[in-house]
Amino acid sequence: MADPLNILHTIGLDELYPVVRCELRLADQLDVDRLKRAVVAVGKIIPEIFASYEVADNRFVPLDRDAATIVKVVTDYDEGAANRLDFMNQPQLKIIVTGEKLIIFVSHILSDGAGTKQLLYLLAECYNRQAVPKGIQNHTDIDGIRQLLATTKPTVNTTDHPSEKLLLPKLADSQSPTYEVIYTQLSEQQTQALHATTRKLGVTLNDMLMAAFGKTIQQYCGVGAIALACPTDMRQYLPAERRQQLRVQNMTARYNFDVVIQPEEGLAVTAKKVHEQMVDRKKAKQFLDSIRGLVAKVEAGQPIDELQKAVEASYHVREIAYTNFGIVDQERLNFAGTTVNQLIMTGSFRRMPMYQVAISTFNSRMTLAVNMIGSRAERQFGRAVLDHMRVRLLAITDDWNK
């Protein structure tokens, strides 16, 4: 059996296909033949990219190691290509070259966002060296997490199914849905100012972003609380030696927080409430509760349907979701002969009114992005939501940096 945490991303496949999408905008087009050789090199370290996936026994089934099955060159790219991904029968990696853009789809069954960043760095290294880096091995065990589970008590009074859910309204005009990636950015100066604001307030950047997103969604549904799941990379809790290893795998769990807020209260007040609750969650390592049941059932040899029930109970697909991929290292994501001018990282495409904001920082600029499926009106609405979140962030940085 492969990494048990892969199973986290095998529920709700009809409404949410499990991908991490990366869009690289380059100064010049890559050498496609060189890129294909790099993919083959990556496959020698992470053979699962050349494999299909069998849900029934959580295993990857080797396919031909032909880079042409992964790398495609197209003239006219349509985001609807995401609807044609099939990780159950095809490779776990898809790279589309369209002019000076690379669109990379990584199977979320194979890896989470942090692992996807490691995969991108490895792809760039193989492209630049035109060889397989020596002494590198990919690790997919969760032994360190099992030890953490054994030494950490379950928390109480937290649930993955809040009583008041954040929701967006369903529009009457929902016909002819189209795939689209929408995004907005903060400049380097604006990003620095946001960091400075969080330091002045004594909160983390993540606290601020979640508060801004939650308040933005709250205005459309009128609930009295913000309840969100906050993904966290468990690699940080591994022993130092294991943290240094290549780990293209699923090792993300998530905190659940639920704070009562007044719609009229300021973002600074909300951010501090989120921060206070997140401090308590972190002290208790509450994120482990999101995977505890799954790992226990895996240890007991339970069948896949029982494992998926554990996921539904503690790691279910939320209609409103947040993720932060953090900083992508521009020095490591560097391809010879060109420059990566911009990077947009997102998760799965969601059918409106489902909505996930994905945040990443590259070259000192923060990007807020959403993968949407919706009618023209729904996509316009989705863009307005994202723009409103950005306005909230800029407003508080202006207030605290005058």
TrEMBL record:
Report the superkingdom from the record: Bacteria
List, alphabetically, the Gene3D superfamilies matched: Chloramphenicol acetyltransferase-like domain, Nonribosomal peptide synthetase, condensation domain
User: Would you tell me the protein name for this molecule?
Assistant: Condensation domain protein
Source lineage: Bacteria, Bacillati, Bacillota, Bacilli, Lactobacillales
